[in-house]
Amino acid sequence: MAFIDVSLPPSDGGGTTPIVVRCRGENCGGTVPELAETMARVILSSASDVVLDLREVEFIDAATMSFIVRADIVLRGSARSLIVESPSAPARAVDVCGLAYVDLG
């Protein structure tokens, strides 16, 4: 089971403080809709970069990895960044999927 939390920064007036999305547990195809809904709300509601905190992820599958790639493309298209922070051992697979350019904290 996956858990997703969002930490909104105090308003800095310019949207320069990143929004943190924390994922925990097992992240697989069945959890992608929840992650997608959360990320869509975050991306549409702010001009900030997004930090995806994967420190407490126990499992991540190809569907989740594919979503992370798509979220990164969307953010880069609006001159923002997706920062994958301190991935756990299973989540380090993001590097294998060609996300080496994403800041891995």
How would you portray this structure in words?
The chain is an alpha/beta fold. It has a single domain (2-8, 18-96), classed as Transcription Regulator spoIIAA. Helix content is 32%, strand content 29%. Helix 1 runs parallel beside helix 2.
Tell me the CATH topology: Transcription Regulator spoIIAA
What portion of residues is helical?
25-40%
- The CATH architecture designation is 2-Layer Sandwich
Structural class of the secondary structure composition?
alpha/beta
How would you sum up the major sheet? 4 strands, mixed
Which geometry do the CA atoms define?
A: globular
| DSSP summary: helix tally | 3
Structurally, how many domains make up the residues?
1
CA distance, first residue to last residue? 25 Å
Q: What is the typical, i.e. mean, pLDDT?
A: 79
Ordered list of secondary-structure elements with their pairings:
Layout: E1 2-7, E2 19-27, H1 32-45, E3 50-60, H2 62-77, E4 82-85, H3 93-96
Parallel strand pairs: 2-3, 3-4
Antiparallel strand pairs: 1-2
Helix pairs in contact: 1-2
Question: Would you summarize the structure shown here?
Answer:
The protein has 105 residues and is of the alpha/beta class.
Features of the shown structure:
single chain; 105 residues; alpha/beta; Transcription Regulator spoIIAA; four-stranded mixed β-sheet; 3 helices; 4 strands; 32% helix
